[in-house]
Amino acid sequence: MTYQAFYRVYRPQSFREMSGQSHVKRTLQNALLANKTTHAYLFSGPRGTGKTSTAKVFAKALNCEHAPTDEPCNECATCLSITNGSHPDVIEFDAASNSRVEEMREIIEKVRFAPASARFKVYIIDEVHMLSTSAFNALLKTLEEPPAHVVFILATTEPHKLPATIISRCQRFDFKRLSSIDLLERMKVVLEDIELPYDEQALKVISQSAAGGMRDALSMLDQVVSFSGDKLTLDDALFVTGSISQDVFYDLAKALSEKDIAQVLALLEKLISEGKDAVRLSEDLITFFRDLLLIQTAPGLEDLLELASSDEKFKTIANQFTMDTLYGYVDILSKTQQEMRFSHHSKIYLETALLKMAQFAPGQSIIQTNSQMMMQAAGESPNVEVLEAKIASLEEIVHQLQQGGMQQHNAAPAQQRQRPKVDSGVKINVGRIQEVLKVATKKDLQMIKSAWADVINQLQRSQSALLEEAEPVAATSNAFVLKLKQAVYCTIGTNNGTFSAMTTILQQLTGSTYEVVVVPEENWLKIRTDYIRQHGLGKQVTSSEESPEDHINESTESLFVEEQIISEDPLVVEAEKIFGKDFVEVVED
């Protein structure tokens, strides 16, 4: 007989053998005893948590020759045939490889026939979210009103992909990730059955790597058993799973408590050189410092420790940190982990996080930690007296500015009212915008707009998303005004290099170097209105007489006049309402 993997050999064959999921077991067993089983069930939850196994056990209990019963006997012919997958009335259907409507119609056609030898005909549809829309529609009516002898059990890892009409016709059971204790107990049963000695700490390493999935835990256990010799040891489990030993975490925590930055970075470099993943390492560090918090706050809950143990050395190192420090470490690592997911330089992020942790002090923010690191990198040491003097000086300057601003407000309130409102602290260069408007031409603006789509396509996704609602509104041969939807986009675009990248791409496309002058939409409307009013551009020029404002460029004037005429055209206004401004283009005859 060929060798079978642990997760197949030790698949539970009764509710009693199932690990965890007590809320599911109790509900199903009560329904079996009371003969109150329904026609459709939905089992949803993460992979390896027992959905398909529960479906098979439930099918056996429904059709057991000793029914009604809350446990299948696993001895009658029906139970044995369902166990080995040969019973004609228990049909397993894999929706991942049979997602078309034709396969679903074959099932529906056979539903009306009575069971061959069992009480119920049970259809177990695995990965049901993979069915096509037409297959769901074909299943819907049968699922709503099936024959009395049919039971559907739908299993999925992604219930949000199922139509609401399907979910509403099923009894839904949500399977949870299994606890470390559940995984440990099951692995002990397996190792005792094969009579292999083991180190319990090795099982904890496997349990932590499995992340709540029984199938993953048993698969990794199978690998470690194959790798190990006469005994399953901690080193074997660490090597096969790629995890890190407790001693390394202890050394790292000790170096952090002593603020030995060289040792911290050396340990990290060693782990990375051994092939450890930086993202996975950050997750393990969060778990380790969580364990230290648990040792401090709840020393009696030793069974909940995952990476640390209840040894005296871990209790000692845990007490060397204050709770605020441990909370700060977890906070730094959590934020760093989020940033690492969007970067290819995860090691650098983790190094920076460890440096922040080494400089962290209770009651200190992460910004203060960064400031200290910068001062030390520049060879400076923070002097409390100097810092206090600087703070006092800054407070005095702020006070003087506030007094001067108040006097200016009292002296010229009208002038202040004329200034465009600036939002979110963004500085708008009104003077530069007006300079661009003085010499702006329609031809230059069309040049920018004709290349705009290519510019957006060549930017990074995060940068192009920032410019989705942006629009060039005025341009010269070497500068253009870019209108943004919100003021905060100006700051973000400057900080992440969007505008500099945009000018580089424009230079490649047009051969000209442009200066970008950004302005939020509400500020642009104010600046544009003031400019039109000040230079008399709101009136259409109907005679050949020269405008009194001789220094205004004729192209700029015609641009504003044309924009005003277009905006007042009722046909254009109605078209923009229907299709949106981005899809309406006015072409001159």
Task: Describe this protein with a few key phrases.
alpha/beta; Helicase, Ruva Protein, domain 3; Zinc Finger, Delta Prime, domain 3; 4 domains; 28 helices
Rg calculated over all Cα atoms: 35 Å
- The portion of residues forming beta strands comes to 5-15%
As residue ranges, the low-confidence spans are 365-369, 373-382, 412-424, 539-552, 564-568
Please give the alpha-carbon distance between the first and last residues.
85 Å
**CATH topology name of the largest domain:** Rossmann fold
Characterize the overall form: flat
The CATH class of the largest domain turns out to be: Alpha Beta
The biggest beta sheet is recorded as: 5 strands, parallel
| Tally of separate domains | 4
What is the spatial order of strands in the main beta sheet? 2-3-4-1-5
Determine the CATH superfamily of the largest domain: P-loop containing nucleotide triphosphate hydrolases
CATH architecture of the largest domain: 3-Layer(aba) Sandwich
Number of helices: 28
What is the helical fraction, as a range of percent? 55-70%
Mean pLDDT: 79
**Computed structural class:** alpha/beta
Instruction: Work out the number of β strands.
Output: 8
Domain AAA+ ATPase: 37-179
Protein name: DNA-directed DNA polymerase
Organism: Viridibacillus soli
EC number: 2.7.7.7
